[in-house]
Predict the structure.
Amino acid sequence: MMFKNSSNRILAGGVLSLFIAIGVGRFAYTPILPLMQMEQGLSGLAAGNIASANYLGYLVGALLASVIPWRDKRGYYLKLNLAISLLTTGIMGLSSSMVFWLIVRFISGCSSSIIFVLASSIVIDLLNREHKQPLIGVFYSGVGLGIAFTGLAVPWLNASLGWQGAWIGLSLLSAVLAVIPFIGIPSHNNPVTAAASSDQAMRDKSISVTSLIVVYGLEGFGYVITATFIVAMLREMFTSSLVSSSSWVIVGLAAAPSCFLWAKLSKRFGYVYVLMSAYLVQAVAVILPLIKPDAWGALTGALLFGGTFMGITTIANALMRNLKPENSSRFIGYLTAAYGLGQIIGPLIAGFIFDVTRDFDLALILAFATLLLALALMAFGSSSRKRS
């Protein structure tokens, strides 16, 4: 059995930690949002505020994760925050108070960010030690699997239990899966301080730590508008709900294998070059529904978006681990904090734009431009460092 091996148990626990905390705890809001808008009459700005509260919590959690000396108790704090994530997902369905939602989503964001940083640190340390770096993509596939799960489960739960039951049902179903990380990940795990391989370290010289943090922060803004509003946006564009509900399942199913594929490409062609390619593809994904406003354009955009947003996360975090192997938790925390800052701004702007214009066109154009800016900064920085 694969789970008899302790490394496989830790990897499986890491995958399901991301499934529960990010795929469900963080992104369940996307397919449930249109249901809450119909039943509760949420405006675009209110919907954006709830999303940004979650992303503010994500930023705070990332900052905490970067400064707290977790030492050998990373697994213990990971499990504690998994319990918080499950709780905050479920209790979203127990109230219709905006203040309650804002507080709960803030706490949920904080716990999901800490889980992401600690799980990334634990699993990437393990895979680097055992020279199994391509499996980093398997680890990050947990997010895509969780997203696909919410896309399939939310319509079913809503049909019988309403939007409140969707939140509660997702929490209960996730609690069953949480048994694996609780059992598989040791509560005490020592950090690994081994340096990156000389081959990879040489490739990584084409980007600095500061540049990586900046362009990843721009990704936070560039991706989050689509990640938050894609289902609501497509419901506005199409009379049938089939396209909007299918789009989120496609995003998740594309995200799951993409992490492994981008990791393999990065190993072969270099992290920075492949990261730039992923930003370019995502920029096309974001703008495609505007260029081709039909079902084909919407679903192709969802496929390309799902195929890149977690791939970019996979590459960026693995790259930071190679740049700073001696303190991966702290620097992955800095990286996640920059990402979180971009995420806070995006939904606020998109929600405001929707209330004024009654569509997301301008917000998508801003996201597209932001991704191109990040791409240009990487290209310029890589070229400058090569010349120097």
Summary: Confidence is low (pLDDT under 50) at residues 193-203.
